[in-house]
Amino acid sequence: MKHAVQAKKHLGQHFLKDEGIARNIVEALLEKDNSTPVLEIGPGTGVLTKYLIESGIDFLAWDVDRDSIPYLKSTYPAQDNRFVLKDFLENDPAEDFKGAYNIIGNFPYNISSQIMFKVLDHKNKIPFVVGMFQKEVAERLAEKPGSKTYGILSVLLQAYYDIEYLFTVHENVFVPPPKVKSAVIRLSRNTRENLGCDEELFKKIIKGTFNQRRKTIRNSIRSVSGAIVLTHPLLEKRPEQLSVEEFVELTQLVEAEMKKG
Fold first, then answer.
1. Angle at 143 between CA 138 and CA 148, to 5 degrees
2. Which CATH number fits domain 199-260: 1.10.8.100, 1.10.10.10, 1.10.150.120, 3.90.550.10?
3. Mean pLDDT in consecutive groups of 10 residues from the start of the chain, 261 residues
4. Rounded CA gap, 134 and 165, in Å?
């Protein structure tokens, strides 16, 4: 007898039960790309998996839940080899995907930002991501400059992806219901191949200035880079006011100052 998978608090699990929302999430990915293989992160009880199977797309589903994988294998025996006990944060998808792959998932909220940082590490292999996030996180990732919610991950992701806030999801469509609203966003890889500046310094400047976000760039940049640009309009702004392109320009200015020694 097959037993249902129980949501585990330590894994941050909240299982989506609304079939219409599940279908919409899968369609949000496939309407952009219905040929690239898909990696589903945290399939849980298979509510998204069902529609991936129906679509005929090539996919793998990774989960760290030792109850989830056997449940899915027994639910979809013809797809047995697609369900793998693996942690996305601890494993390299290149072991299973030789080329590009898209990502989909109802992401555990406690690790959703870590998942996005790993997506950035593999950005040249991942054309599209569609995922469920805590609503506040989804808004932050899609936010534009000038907002208090615009932050480190907003800039880093938007350097390489166009981000669309697709729709809000209410608490009552999950088991157990979370205490917050959720939202689905879509990331589409843009055409930027490189930043035109030192990428590691770019990251360091973004993280360092946002960690002192109440200060102007002028007052935070020295502690971040050891260099100071004496005159430039960007220095009078705060980090949440800078676009990706302005952070690139700032990084180029700092690079030039550092080369002066």
1. 105
2. 1.10.8.100
3. 58 76 97 97 93 97 89 93 95 95 94 95 97 96 94 96 97 84 97 93 94 90 73 91 96 87 63
4. 12
Kindly report the three-state secondary structure assignment for every residue of the chain: CCCCCCCCHHHCCCEECCHHHHHHHHHHHHCCCCCCCEEEECCCCCCCHHHHHHHCCCEEEEECCCCHHHHHHHHCHHHHHHEEECCCCCCCHHHCCCCCCEEEEECCHHHHHHHHHHHHHCCCCCCEEEEEEEHHHHHHHHCCCCCCCCCHHHHHHHCCEEEEEEEEECHHHEECCCCCCEEEEEEEECCCCCCCCCHHHHHHHHHHHHCCCCCCHHHHHHHHHCCCCCCCHHHHCCHHHCCHHHHHHHHHHHHHHHHHC
- Is the pTM higher than 0.90? The answer reads yes
Q: Where exactly does CATH 3.40.50.150 map onto the chain?
A: 9-189
Superfamily of domain 9-189: Vaccinia Virus protein VP39 (3.40.50.150)
Decide: 186 and 128 in contact? Cβ < 8 Å.
yes
Tokens of 146: 């000038």
Handedness of CA 12, 15, 21, 26 (dihedral sign): positive
